[in-house]
Fold these 4 entries.
Entry 1:
Amino acid sequence: MKKVVLAFSGGLDTSVCIKLLEENYEMEVITACVDVGQPQEEIERPTAVAYKMGALKHYTIDAKEEFAEEFVFRAIKANAIYEGYPLSTALARPLIAMKIVELAKKEGADAIAHGCTGKGNDQFRFEAIIRAMSDVDVIAPIRDLNLTRSEEIDYAEDHGIPLPSDKQYSIDENLWGRSIEGDILEDPMTETPEEAFNWTRSTDDALDEAQILEIEFEKGIPVGLNNEKMEPLDLIGKCNQIAGLNGIGRIDIIEDRIIGLKSRENYEVPAAILLITAHKALEQLTLTRSELKFASYVTEVYSELIYDGLWHDPLREDLDALTDNMQKRVTGTVKVRLHKGNLRILGRKSPYSLYSEETVSFEDKGMDQREMTGMVKNYGIQAASYNKICKKD
Ligand code: ARG
C-alpha cells in the first residue's frame, strides 16, 4: 500500500481526510501535527484522534521557536500586515509545509496530503512549498471531492470521527494570531458574537486600569519588557496576554483572497498589533524619511508575498536582506499605554535616534533661521509657475 503523510490539525477538514485517504485513495496514513504555538489541547487532540482513526503513526513536531525567530520576527521587522491583517495563519503555513516535507522524505512517503478546500488560500501556500522542496504527489481530498462543510460533518458522524467542540467556526491558531471564519460570520452584516473570541476581551470587559509597558527592541526585534530581557516565546506570550486583557487586537475585515474571492475574516492578534505598532514608532525615530517611505512599500510587497504563499520567491529573500540592513538601527525602547482597546505611544528612545531635540527646539539659536530665507523663497517654484501661467483666468 502507498504511504501518505497528512498535515494534521485535528480540525474538521483534516479529521475527515484520514478516513477519505484510507477509503477513497487506499493509502496508509501517517499524520503529523506541527506545533506553531496553538493551545495545548490542539496538540493533544490530534494525537488522540489520529490513533482512534487508525493512523499508521502520528508525529507532533515542535516548531514554535523556529516559528517565532525565523518567521514572526521577520514579520515584525517588515511590519507585515496585509489589507489590515497582521499575517498569522499565512505566516505559519510555509513552516508547517516545510516540516511535513522533511517528514515525508524521512518516511519515504509517496504523497503528502492536506485538508485545504478549493476556495481558500492555504492550498496555494502548502502546495507551493511542497512542490518547491520535493517531487512527491500532493493530495487534497476535500478539494478533490468538492465537499461542503456540512457534508464533512455528516461524513464524520457516519464514520465515528470525533470532531472538535467548536466546529461551528473554522478556526486557525498559532502563537502570533487566531483567525475565525465561517458559519454566521459569512454574512458580513452579522456582528461577530462575543463567544467567537478567545484571546481578547471586549472593550467593555477590558481591564479598568490602564497598563503601561516598555518594550525594548534590538535591531528591529523585541527582546525585553519593562526592563527585563525575555526569550521570544515568553515575550510574545506575555504581549498577547497583556494586550488581550486590555481589549487590543480584534480585527474584523473583508479581505481579498488569492483567487479573488472576498471573504469576511475575524482575527485576534493582540501581540502583533502591540509589537508592530511599537516597532513602527521606533522606526519613526531612527529611520530617515526616504527609508520610511521605502519601508512602507516593502511592507506592502512583502506582506502580499507572504499572503500569497510565495515564501520561496527570491524577492522575499531580497526584501529580508534589505529590511535586515535597515533594522540595524531600529534599537531602543518604546513606552506604550494600553487601555480599553486603545494603544497609545507615550515615548520612545534610541541610541540611533535621528531626532535632535536641540535643533528642532523653538529655543535654539544655533541653527540660524535667517539662512532659510533663500531656500523658502524658491520653494514650490513649479507650483507657483502653474498657478500664475496656467490659471490666469
Ligand atoms: N484568511 C486568513 C489567511 O488566509 C486566515 C485563514 C485561516 N483559516 C481558518 N480556517 N480560519 O491567512
Note: Residues 89-90, 121, 170-172, 179, 181, 255, 265 surround arginine (CB under 6 Å).
Entry 2:
Amino acid sequence: MKVLKTGAAVATALVLALTATACGGGDKKDGASDAGTSGGGKSDKVVIGIKFDQPGLGLKNPDGTFSGFDVDVATYVAKELGYQPDKIEWKQAVSAERENLISNGDVKFVVASYTINDRRKEKVDFAGPYFLAHQDLLVRAGESGITKAEDLNKKKLCSVTGSTSAQNVKTKLAPEADLLQQGGYSECLTGLENKSVDALTTDNSILAGYAAQEKNKGKFKLVGLNLSNEPYGIGLKKGDKDLQTKINAALKKMVSDGSWDAAVKKNFGPADYKNEPAPQITEGS
Ligand code: GLU
C-alpha cells in the first residue's frame, strides 16, 4: 500500500513538472509575451519587432521610451488589434533577424523599415505597404567625389547584413565597392564619422534621420539619389491571412483618419525629409 501511494505521488509530481514545463515562460508562440497565458495571439500583451537605433523610424531613447514612424504605425495597428500601448512589448529586430523572429514566433509582427520583396516572402508574409522609401547614400559633409552609385566602386562602403541595401550594392549598384556589412546602420555611421568608410548606403528615410540628429548636425549629407524602391511592409507569420487582413484594414484606417500624415510630420518633419504619399495596399489581394 505504502509503495503504491509513493508511486502515485511520484506520478503526480511528474505530471505537474511536465505541465509546468509545457506552460512555462519562454515557450512563446505567435508573439504572445511571457506575461500572457495562451498562444495564438490571445495573450494579454503583444510583442512587436522594431529597430532600436534608427532615429525617425525606430529608436530606443535614453529614458527607455521608443519613438519613430514605425513605432507610431505599430502602436496604431496594435490598438486596432485590441492592444493598448501599455500592452506592447518592443523587441529589437535587426535587419538580418527579422524573418527568424517572425517564423520562430518571437514577435507577432515586425515594423522595422522592412522592404517587401519576393525573397523574403518565401519565409514570411507582409501587410501593407505603408511607406515608400528609396535607397540613397550618406557621405561626410565635405565629400564631393561621390555623386552617383558607380563612384562607389573601389571605395569603402558600409551597409547592413540582411538588408536590401547591401544586396543591391553587391548585385547591381557597385559590385566593385569594398562593402563592409555591419549589424546595424548606427555602426556604419560611426565608421563614416571616423573615416573608416567613405559612404553609408540604405533607405533615404533612415539616412535623413541620422543626418538630422543634433549630435550629427553639419557632419553628413545625403547624396540625393533614388537607387531603388523600398516599399515598407509589416512582416507577419507566413499564411496568417487573418492577421494580414486585420493589419491591412488598420493601415487603411490610419491613412484615412489623418493619423498617417500626422505621424509622418511628427517623425520626418525635423529631418526635412520629403516623403512619398501613402502607397496603395497591395499585399494579400
Ligand atoms: N528597407 C531595407 C530593408 O528592409 C533597408 C533598411 C533595413 O535594413 O531595415 O532591407
Note: The CA atoms of residues 129 and 238 lie 16 Å apart.
Entry 3:
Amino acid sequence: MLVVQKYGGTSVGDLERIRNVARRIAKYRDEGHDVVVVVSAMAGETDRLLQLAHELVEEPSPRELDMLVATGEQVSSSLLAMALNAMGYPAKALLAFQIPIKTDELFGKARIRDIATERMREELKKGHVLIIAGFQGITENGDITTLGRGGSDTTAVAIAAALGADVCEIFTDVDGVYTADPRIVPKARKIAKISYDEMLELASMGAKVLEIRSVEFAKIYKVPVHVRSSFSDEPGTMVVEEDESMEKVLVSGVTYNRNEARISLYGVPDKPGVAAKIFGPIADAGIVVDMIIQTGRPDGRADMTFTVPKTDYKNTLRLVEKLSSEIGIEKIEGAEDIAKVSIVGAGMRAHPGVAAKMFNVLANHGINIHMISTSEIKISCVIDEKYTELAVRALHEAFGLDREPEQEG
Ligand code: ADP
Ligand code: ASP
Ligand code: MG
C-alpha cells in the first residue's frame, strides 16, 4: 500500500513528539507499506515567525513573508527524517522546490498548479520514507510561496492525489471530525464517516480540522481521507463520497469562523456596473469576498455589506476608499469583532424549517444576527464575536447533535 500521512504542528511540537511520529511511521514500514509524510511546522512556529515580521515592519512584503514562514516546515521535516534515520529507517526530507510543487504567484495563499512525481517515485523505489515540507510551493520563477494557513493538509492530499495513494491520513490533535469544535463544545460527537461535500462546507465554514482546499482536492481526485489522532490508534473520521445513510442526517455539524471582518458601504449609487466596479479590484487583489448583502434605499442609493478575511481587511478598506470618490460612496465603515456561525448538513436540502429554527435559537439567547447566507446544505449567520461560543453550544444542543443524529422527515 502507498500511504500519505500528514502530521500537524502539535504532533511534531517537540522532540519527543517527533520521535513518537517516527515510531508510528516505522510501524507502517515494518508492515511493508510505502510511506510519504507531509509535516507542518512545529506548534506555534508559524505564528512566531509571522509575529517577528510584523513586529519589524507594519506590512511585510508578501514575497519575503513566504520566504520566512516556509522555514518552519524545513525545520520539522529535516528533524523527522533524522529521527527515522537514527532508528534505522532510511528517510529523506524534501522541500517543495526539490519535488517540485509548482504554484501560482499569489504569495501567502498560492494555489498548487502541478506536482511532479518522478523524484518521489525514485526515492520510494530506493526504499526511502519521504518527509515533505508541507505548506510551501515554488513558482515558475523559482520564488518560494505558501498555501495559506493550515496549508499542509492541502500539500498532503494533493500529493496523495498525484501519487494515486491508497489513503491520505491526516494526523492531528483530535481523534477525528466532530459535530462541533470539541474545544468549545465538550458534548460534541465524533463523526465516523462524512461526505466530501459536507466536509467541504464544514471546512469552509471554519472547522479548521481540515483546510478547505485539501477537501476540494480530495473530492476532485476521490482521495479517501482519514482524519485521526497522532496520539492514539483509534480509528478517526473517514471523508469519502456521499452514500445513502449520510443523506438522512439533517444537521451534521456546527461551525464558527472568527477570521472574517465586515465592511459596509453606505449610499452607493444604485445603478448597473457599480458592484462590478467595487468587487473587480478586490478580486484582482486575490481577496476572497464571502458574504454580500445589498439593500436598496428609498433615495435611489443602496447600502452594501460584505465580509473578507481579517488578514485582507485593511487592504480591502484601502481599495474601496480609493474607489469612493470615483463611484460616489457616501460612507465606508467596518468591524473586525464579528464571527460567523453555521450549521451544515446534507439533509437540510429543501428544509426551510431549519433556517427558522436557527434564527429562533439565536434570538432566544439574545444574539443579534447581522448577516445571513445559505447554500443547499448550510446556513450561516454573522453575529458579534463575543457570542461565538454561546451560539455554537446553543445550536449544537438545539439540533440534537449531542444525541444520536436527527433523521429527515
Ligand atoms: P493541525 O495542527 O494538526 O493541522 P489544527 O489546529 O489545524 O491541527 O486542527 C485541529 C483542530 O481543529 C482541533 O484541535 C480542534 O480544536 C479544531 N476543530 C474545529 N472544528 C472541529 C471539528 N468540527 N472537529 C474536530 N476538530 C475541530
Ligand atoms: N504551518 C502552517 C500553519 O501554521 C501550515 C500548517 O500547519 O498546515 O498554518
Ligand atoms: Mg491544520
Note: The longest helix spans residues 15-30.
Entry 4:
Amino acid sequence: MKILVVGTGAREHVICQVVSQNAELYSYMSNQNPGIAKLAEKFYIGNEMELEEVKKQAISWGVDLAIIGPESPLGEGIVDLLLEEGIACVGPTQAAARIETDKAFMRKLFIDHGIDGSVTYGVFDDVEEAGHFIDDFGKELVVKPVGLTGGKGVKIVGEHLKDDEDAKKYVKEIINNKISGYASVVLEERLVGEEYTIQALVDGNRVIPMPAAQDHPHAYEGDQGPITGGMGSYSDTNGLLPFLDEKAYQDSVKIMEDTIKAVRKEVGPYKGILYGQFMLCRDGPRLVEYNARFGDPEAMNVLPLLKTSFVELCQQVVDGNLKKASFEPKATVCKYLVPNGYPESGRANSIIRVDEEKINEAGAGVYYAAVNQKNNQIFTSSSRALALVAAGESISEAEEICEKATSFVDGDLYHRRDVGTTALIQKRIKHMEDLLGT
Ligand code: GLY
C-alpha cells in the first residue's frame, strides 16, 4: 500500500515512522526533514498550502491513501480535492474541519446539540456590541479570533491583555483587520484548572481514544515565559494522568463522541484524527478547543506506543469500520529542543549535531521538527528544532532517559528540563487538589 503523509514537522515524522512500518511511505514536505527523508520511498519539497501541487504529486506517485498532518491544508479543503481524485484520506473535509477552523461553529455546536463541557461565550462581528458584552460579562475573559492563527491569536485578559480596555482594542483589531480570515471574534470565560489532551481516531461514527497527555506551552521552566507551540509533554502507564482519573477521562471522551455525532448531523461524517484540548475544572472537564489533527508534541506520546498497526487503523478510518487500538502500558516523556531566542526570535540557520546512535542507546527516539537538511548538515529555522521521546515503566523513568538523551544533541538550543519531573507533576496534582478543596 502507498501512503502519502503531508507535513514537515516532528508530528509528521512520528506519523511517517508508524506508517513506514507497514506501508510504502511518500512524503510531501515544505523543507527537508532528515527523519522523514530517511523513511520515505520518495519525497517532494513544496508548499503544503499549494493544494493542486499536493494533488499532482499524490496522483503521480499513485498513492492509495493520504494522511494530512497540519491543520492549514485541511482548512483549505485538501481532503475534498483528494477525495475527488479517488484518494482516500485520514483527515476531515473542509466542512468537518470547521471544528478547528471556525471557533464560532464549534461553540454553537455544543449549544445546539446540548453537548456537556461548554463555556459561557458570545460571538461578535460588531466592535461596539462586543464592547458592551465585555462591560457586562462579569467573569474572567478570553479573546479568540474565530479562525486559525497558528496558536498566536488567543489572549487572556490579565495575562496577555492588561484589562478590559486592552481587550476591546484587541477585539477591534481582530474585526477590522480580519485577523484569522474572519471579521469576527469569540469572547468566552476563562477556564481555571489543569489542561490535558485526548487524541482519537474517528471513522465518521466511532471515536477510538488514545492515552491522555499533557503539553507544556510556556517557553521556560516553572511554566514561565511566552506561549510556544509546546515545549514537551508526558503520558502515564494507564492512559490517564496523575491529576486525571478514569471518570474525567471517560467524560471527556463522551464529549468528543457527542461532538462527532453533531458534526455528522450538521455537515457530514468526520474521518480522521480529533484532538480534544480540555481543562479539568472544579465541575469536571470542559472543552478548550478542538484540533482536526494530531497534537504536536502529543502525537509523539501516543504513536510510538501503538501495538495495533497504524496503517490498519487508517484503513479502518477510511472504511468506516474502526475497531480497537491497543497501546503499550508505558509512560512517555517528550522534550522539545528549540533555538535560543525561541519563540520571539529563534536563531535560524545554525548547525546542530545529533548523535542518533547514542540517543537510541540511551533508550530514546529523535523526531525532527522545523529543521532543514542541506549537504548532510542539519540547520535550525526560527521554530522548534527536534523532539526527544522516551518511554518507561513510570513517568520519572521516562523523564530520566529523555533528559539524558538531550546531552547527545549539540547546538545553539535550549529545552525545559522540568517537563515530566516529579516536582512539576506534584505541582499539577496540588493545583487540582486546591481547586477541588480535597
Ligand atoms: N500541543 C498543541 C497543538 O498541537 O496544537
Note: The domain at 2-96 is CATH 3.40.50.20 (Rossmann fold).
